[in-house]
Amino acid sequence: MARIFIVSLLAQLVIIALFLYWSWQAEQFMCRSGIADCSLWQRFNELAGMAFYSAVCAWLFTTVLSVLGGVLASTRLTIALPPVFLFLGWLLVLII
Question: What is the per-residue pLDDT for 53?
């Protein structure tokens, strides 16, 4: 049972990293100088949206699985780490 939580955590972190990269790429194509490539911005924005919703679904699946399996106390890191990583990464993207 513990192996599925480790795989789920790694998958969530990869999906969140993809979300952060694609949202950063979308921001790069919609630059502030007035010259923008709207088609590439839309493409990366849609990819970032799909990655975000995939990460949320994977996180919810992991949370429900740990509650139903009765191992909530031992899987706190698996449940708490992805939202923290997403929040800190989002702040990093806003700063860069």
Answer: 94
